[in-house]
UniProtKB/TrEMBL annotation:
Residues 5-64, 154-213 form the CHORD domain. Keywords: Metal-binding, Repeat, Zinc. This is CHORD domain-containing protein. Residues 64-84 have a biased composition (Basic and acidic residues). It comes from the Eukaryota. InterPro entries: CHORD_dom, CHRD1. Transmembrane segments: none annotated. Signal peptide: none annotated. Pfam families: CHORD. GO terms for molecular function: metal ion binding.
């Protein structure tokens, strides 16, 4: 029977008979959240995107372990006044999508007058756009399935399903469509707002939306001026 590895950053299933000192790629450190950057204390990679943070590959090799951590896995949140962990040398930073809080600050005040924008689309153009949209979605889905290999984990937040073949793609995906929020020691998803102070409990929160699995991370295209 395959066992689930609880080493941080691994999460794969393993056979104890085939376990070895080089079988597991994991993070021996703790998660760190500092000035919107997220990473692990054991390596220098940093990212602003929570899903990218969860996907950072482990930096150490060791044996798989099916023992759950005895103490809650709590991220170290630091500030300019008290940075508990300092790294020498350059850090690798991934620029992820803007958070919901940042987008909210950029929006104009709700008290400002609103103006309705008129949108006119001719019937012929609407048909062309509809066919193009369907074609693009089918092509994107085909490429996604072709790119997925057995062992690939679903990229949707909160989903831990691992791709085993075309039959896996037919399963429903239970995930969080929102963004993670860390505020005053609490962790939660802004799509369901179930708050917890335990980082492990936050990662194990069941998704609040049903949809399709995503095996390939979607690329965010820069806005064209």
């Amino acid at each position: 029977m395959a066992l689930l590895c609880y080493n941080k950053g691994c999460g794969n299933r393993f056979d104890e008979d085939k376990n070895s000192d080089e079988a597991c790629l994991y993070h021996p450190g703790v998660p760190i959240f500092h000035d919107a950057l997220k990473g692990w204390s054991c390596c220098k990679k940093r990212t602003t995107d929570f899903s990218e943070f969860l996907s950072i590959k482990g930096c150490s090799r060791g044996r798989h372990s099916n023992e759950k951590p005895q103490e809650p896995l709590r991220p170290e949140v630091t500030s300019e006044k008290g940075d508990t962990l300092l790294h020498t040398g350059p850090e690798i930073i991934y620029q992820g999508p803007k958070s919901a809080e940042a987008l909210k600050k950029e929006r104009p005040s709700s008290d400002e007058p609103k103006s309705k924008l008129s949108v006119k689309v001719s019937p012929s153009l609407a048909q062309v756009l509809e066919k193009l949209d369907i074609s693009n979605k089918e092509e994107a889905k085909k490429k996604e399935i072709e790119a997925a290999v057995p062992g690939t984990r679903c990229k949707n937040s909160g989903c831990k399903t691992v791709y085993q073949g075309p039959e896996t793609d037919a399963e429903t995906c239970c995930h969080h469509p929102g963004a993670p929020v860390f505020h005053e020691g609490y962790k939660y998803w802004n799509c369901c707002c179930i708050k917890t102070t335990d980082f492990n409990a936050f990662l194990d929160q069941k998704g609040c939306t049903i949809g399709k699995h995503c095996w390939v991370r979607k690329q965010v295209r820069p806005a064209q001026s």
